[in-house]
Design goal:
Blueprint: H1 2-27, H2 35-38, E1 42-46, H3 57-65, E2 73-76, H4 86-100, E3 106-111, H5 113-124, H6 126-129, E4 132-138, H7 146-158, H8 162-165, H9 171-176, E5 194-200, E6 214-217, E7 220-223, E8 231-235, H10 256-267, E9 276-285, E10 300-307, E11 318-323, E12 349-350, E13 355-364, E14 376-385, E15 392-399, E16 404-413
Parallel strand pairs: 1-2, 1-3, 3-4, 4-5, 5-8
Antiparallel strand pairs: 6-7, 9-12, 9-16, 10-11, 10-13, 13-14, 15-16
Length: 414
C-alpha cells in the first residue's frame, strides 16, 4: 500500500512537471522549437514553359508521404502562350504569393522557366523574398540558352515571347541575377535564402541545345543552370548519388532520385555544418597533353569554384582557378595549381549547412564569337555532404562530353 501511495505521488509530480514544460514550450518563439516539432514549411511549386500543375503530381505525392499537408503545397500556374513575358508573369506570381503564403517562411521549387520567373520575383520583392528559406531550381535556364540567342528573334516573334527572356544577357535574366549578367562572387546574393540547382547530362534543353553546356557572354563561361554561390548538382547516368538516373529536361519533376535530393535539401537543418571546411588541392585533366594532365594547354578557359549555398555570406563563391579567353596568368604554372585566382577568398571554404559544392568548367574555345557545345570539355559538379561523407582527403572525377578531370580536395573539422 505504501509503495502504491509513493508511486501515485511521483506520478502526480511528473504530471505537474510535464504540464509546466508544455506550457513553457507553448509560449516560446517558433524559432526556439525544433524543426521536427514545427513540421515542414509551406512550399511553392512553379512549373516551366508548356507545362501546368500536372507536372508536379508525383512530386506532390512524395511530399505528402514525407509529412506535408495538402494545404502546405501551393502550385502556381501561368499562361505560357505567345504573348507571355517573365516580367508580367512575375507580377501574377506576387499576387499568388500574397494570397497563399504571406507572412510565412516557405520554400520554392521551380522547373525550367519557373526558375527565372521566381528569381525575378525575388529580385523585385526583397522583403518578401527574405521569407524564402530554400530556392531550388530543376533545369532552370538561369543564364539563358544559346538556342534563344541563335533563334530568339524568329522564335520570339512567331512562337513564344518567353524566348526573348531566355537570351543570354536579357533584361529578365539580368534582373533575376541581381542586376548583373554574371557574378563570380555569387549570383544568389547575400540574403538568407539557401540556393540549390540541378542540371542533367541528359537534358536536351531548348531546340536540342543542352542546358548543361556553356553559355558565352563576353569572355566568361557558365553553364545555363548552375549559379555562383549555390549548391549545384550535376545528374549523370554514372553518378551513384543519383543511382544512375539521368533525367531529360521534362523528366526532372518526376524523377524519383531528383525528388529524393530535393527533399534532402528542404529538410537540411545545417546541424554541425559550420564545423567543416573544404579546400581544393589540385585538379588534373585526363588524356590532355601526354603528361598525365599535369600541364594544360594555355588556351584553356573556365573555372573551379566552391560554393556552400547556406544563405548570407555563404552565398559567395570561392573561385580557385579562373581563366578567360586570352588570359595568360595561369599558363606558366602547373595546370590548375590552386589557389591562383584573384577571386579566391582564402584556402578554405566553410561548408555551411553541412554541404559544399565544387563546380568545374573547362572550355577549349576556338576563338569563335560564341562557345559551341563541342568546345566544352568538362562541366561537372561534386557535392560534399556531411550526412554522406566524412572529413579527410577525397577525389572525384567530373566529366563532360569531350573530356574529364579529377578533383582532389580535403575536408577538415574545425
Amino acid at each position: 500500500m505504501e509503495n502504491s501511495h509513493s508511486f501515485n505521488i511521483a506520478l502526480r509530480r511528473c504530471s505537474v512537471v510535464l504540464s509546466t514544460f508544455a506550457a513553457l514550450i507553448a509560449v516560446l518563439p517558433a524559432d526556439h522549437a525544433s524543426a521536427a516539432s514545427q513540421g515542414p514549411r509551406d512550399i511553392v511549386l512553379v512549373h516551366g514553359m508548356n507545362d501546368g500543375k500536372g507536372v508536379w503530381k508525383s512530386m506532390v505525392d512524395r511530399l505528402e508521404k514525407n509529412g506535408y499537408r495538402k494545404a502546405q503545397i501551393h502550385m502556381f500556374s501561368y499562361d505560357t502562350n505567345y504573348g507571355s513575358r517573365v516580367a508580367d508573369v512575375a507580377k501574377d506570381f506576387d499576387t499568388f504569393i500574397q494570397k497563399e503564403v504571406k507572412g510565412k517562411k516557405f520554400d520554392i521549387v521551380a522547373h525550367s522557366l519557373g526558375s527565372v520567373i521566381s528569381r525575378y520575383w525575388m529580385a523585385d520583392h526583397p522583403q518578401d523574398a527574405a521569407q524564402v528559406t530554400n530556392w531550388i531550381s530543376l533545369a532552370g535556364p538561369n543564364h539563358g540558352t544559346m538556342a534563344a540567342y541563335w533563334w530568339g528573334d524568329a522564335a520570339g516573334a512567331f512562337w513564344k515571347k518567353f524566348v526573348w527572356d531566355m537570351e543570354p544577357g536579357s533584361d529578365a535574366l539580368r534582373k533575376a541575377n541581381n542586376g548583373k549578367n554574371y557574378d563570380w562572387w555569387g549570383e544568389a546574393g547575400n540574403g538568407p535564402t539557401r540556393f540549390t540547382t540541378f542540371r542533367s547530362a541528359c537534358d536536351e534543353g531548348l531546340a536540342g541545345v543542352p542546358m548543361d553546356q556553356a553559355v558565352m557572354f563576353d569572355k566568361e563561361d557558365f553553364d545555363s543552370t548552375s549559379l555562383g554561390g549555390a549548391i549545384n548538382y550535376k545528374v549523370t547516368n554514372t553518378n551513384q548519388d543519383f543511382a544512375g538516373h539521368c533525367p531529360s529536361h521534362g523528366g526532372f519533376p518526376n524523377d524519383s532520385e531528383v525528388q529524393k535530393k530535393v527533399y534532402e535539401a528542404l529538410v537540411d537543418g545545417g546541424e554541425g555544418g559550420s564545423e567543416y571546411l573544404l579546400k581544393i588541392d589540385k585538379v588534373r585533366m585526363f588524356d590532355e597533353t601526354g603528361d598525365g594532365g599535369v600541364k594544360g594547354n594555355s588556351d584553356r578557359m573556365g573555372y573551379i569554384r566552391v560554393n556552400s549555398g547556406g544563405g548570407g555570406q555563404a552565398n559567395l563563391s570561392n573561385v580557385y582557378w579562373r581563366n578567360d579567353r586570352g588570359d595568360t596568368d595561369d599558363s606558366g604554372h602547373e595546370w590548375l595549381n590552386v589557389p591562383n585566382s584573384g577571386f579566391n577568398r582564402g584556402a578554405w571554404t566553410n561548408c555551411t549547412n553541412g554541404r559544399c559544392g565544387i563546380d568545374v568548367m573547362v572550355v577549349d574555345e576556338d576563338y569563335g564569337s560564341v562557345v559551341d557545345p563541342d568546345d566544352v570539355e568538362v562541366n561537372g559538379s561534386v557535392v560534399w555532404d556531411v550526412r554522406l561523407n566524412g572529413a579527410g582527403q577525397h577525389s572525384k572525377v567530373v566529366q563532360g562530353r569531350y573530356g574529364k578531370a579529377e578533383v582532389f580536395y580535403t575536408v577538415e573539422r574545425r
